[in-house]
Amino acid sequence: MNIETDVLVVGGGVAGCATAYYLAREGVEVVLIDRGDVNAGASGANAGSIHSQMYYHNFNTRSAEWIDAFAPVLPLLKLSSEVWQELAAELDRDIELVIAGGLMVAETADQLRLLERKVAFENGHGIASTILSASELATLAPYISDRMVGAEFCPYEGKVNPLLATVAIAAAAKRLGARILPLTDLEAWAPAKQGFEAHTNRGRIHS
User: Fold this and answer.
1) What are the Cα distances from residue 108, in Å, to 148, 149, 177, 179, 181?
2) pTM score above 0.70
3) What is the DSSP string of 117-138?
4) 3-state secondary structure of 101
5) 177 and 5 in contact (C-beta within 8 Å)?
6) pLDDT per position as a tens digit, 66-100
7) What is the C-alpha separation between 9 and 32, in angstroms, rounded?
8) 26: which residues sit within 8 A by CB, 6+ positions away?
9) Distance between CA 116 and CA 152 in Å, rounded?
10) Please, what are the domains in the chain?
């Protein structure tokens, strides 16, 4: 194998396949390699959750400096939810994307007060989370224990089927001209005079 391409993407998980897809959509010549197969790693073995709010543990235990440093990530989390919805509409198969919002429940009054502070912080950074009372929570999610005193509701959260999503994105990238090469292990990589030189178990790729 002796390949010339504009861009080489290493890794056939969701990030690599999405990178190949968006590059190919813009007319960039792209090759993606994976030492195994598309979606055979963590991208195909996770829960498929799409989160747009801060984890309770981080907001509860991290320093104020850490939380402030995390703040610029929040708009990106919201944007990622929007990108998933756009992507689902572009693909030729159902990836079982559902954006129905996510709950973070409170078992005690102290936890609910912390969630109220967290919601105020998130609201200030573009995340339109709200606090639900116990009765509102029971109406929205009657399957949750009535011991809960309230909850935070974030409207941008949801799930996608991880067994379907990356495979669908890879297929769309291929239709747009991307070359996807499984069982191709990157053994060495170095800058070249023009671009980069990659050596794999199947041969050379110059990008």
Assistant:
1) 7, 6, 54, 53, 52
2) yes
3) HHHHHHHTTT---EEEEHHHHH
4) coil
5) no
6) 999 999 999 999 999 999 999 999 999 999 999 99
7) 5
8) none
9) 8
10) 1-46+162-207 (3.50.50.60), 51-159 (no CATH)
